Amino acid sequence: MRLLLLIGLLIPLWASSQQLEYEVIFEGIGDNREFFSGKALSQTILGSRGAFELGVSHDNHSIRGGLSQLFEFGSDLDDQKPKLTLYYQFQDNNKKFLFGAFPRRGAIDFPLAMLTDTLLYYRPNIEGMLGEIRWNWGYQQGFVDWVSRQTNVNREKFMAGFAGEVYHKNLFLQHYLLLFHDAKPTIRVMGDHIRDYLGYALQAGIRTTENAKINGYLKAGLLSSSFRERSITDGFVHSGSFFAEVQGHYKNYGIQSVISSGSGHRFAYGDLFYRLKNYWRTDVIWYFINHEKIKGKFNLSFHLLNGNDLDQQQQLSIIYVFGK
Question: pLDDT tens track of the chain, all 324 residues?
């Protein structure tokens, strides 16, 4: 809080030569997970998030600070601690660089197999750095997210990833690479070991034309993962699967379907369903608010597990962004 107060006192001194910026965000969260198979946690997440950012910019450089607070319905106000947002950003027409604690949403977009969507609820910021460069034929980005510093009781954890795409007309090739390192605390615990997670996805696909009545894409390729627990596994345990996705969007309605078939995967923050050998998820989507500053979406999701069990899920999201 003292740091935010200091920023607030300094901003007026800079305002004469800098451009003042602000952003206020409201997010409504409704996520009902009826997972009767026991393959993932069955739970209901209901809440709202408020966030604000205040900063200054000059040319292509900016500094922003603020807070993000999640309130889960039915809990005490202090059950979830406020998250500090504080970062530097450089951005021009084809380059972007961020350093600090900055919002995860809109910065990276990895498959749920690698990074599950609950990170947006409970860890909304990346705490580290991100760089991105774009060309007229694609883009490449990389990030580092520092999760925890090693202490006597806390484990050292960090995540690093790369994502990119090259395209020609309606054809594209996408890749994702993710590393997660989970080291022991300083005071050793019997039976506790260092864990390493590594994986990638490589998919080729085709998009509809810009003027098509139904917008969407089809892509397919390989999902691969490697996991080791030192002194437990005999080196890395490798897994691979066929990984495909199709998405269509017509007016205020959409459908999205993802399939992984082959071996189960183990990512530190990945969706648990992808640990199964065969997993097929289909979402029926209603975009019930499509305003410039307000987006509302409802998902009805079906999860087919190993061709036998069928779990379902309903997700409601409302995001309002106001800023300058």
Answer: 555 555 555 555 445 557 899 999 999 999 999 999 999 999 999 999 999 999 999 999 999 999 999 999 999 888 999 999 999 999 999 999 999 999 999 999 999 999 999 999 999 999 999 999 999 999 999 999 999 998 888 899 999 999 999 999 999 999 999 999 999 888 888 878 899 999 999 999 999 998 888 999 999 999 999 999 998 998 999 999 999 999 999 999 999 999 999 999 999 999 999 999 999 999 999 999 999 999 999 999 999 999 999 999 999 999 999 986
Which tokens hold the place of 140? 């490449």
Q: How far apart are CA 187 and CA 196, in angstroms?
A: 19
Give 291: exposed, middle or buried? Use CB within 10 Å, 0-12, 13-18, 19+.
Answer: exposed
Number of domains in the chain: 1
Look up the CATH number of the domain holding residue 137: 2.40.160.10
Distance between CA atoms of 248 and 222, rounded to whole angstroms?
21
Which of 124, 180, 171, 177 is CA-nearest to residue 148?
A: 180
**Cβ count near 121 (within 10 Å):** 17
Structural domain of residue 182, as residue ranges?
2-323
CA 274 → CA 222, 269, 271, distances in Å? 13, 11, 6
- Please tell me the pTM assigned to this model: 0.91
CB-based burial, 71-108: b 16+ in 10 Å, e otherwise:
bbeeeeeeebeebbbbbebeeeeeebbbebbbbbeeeb
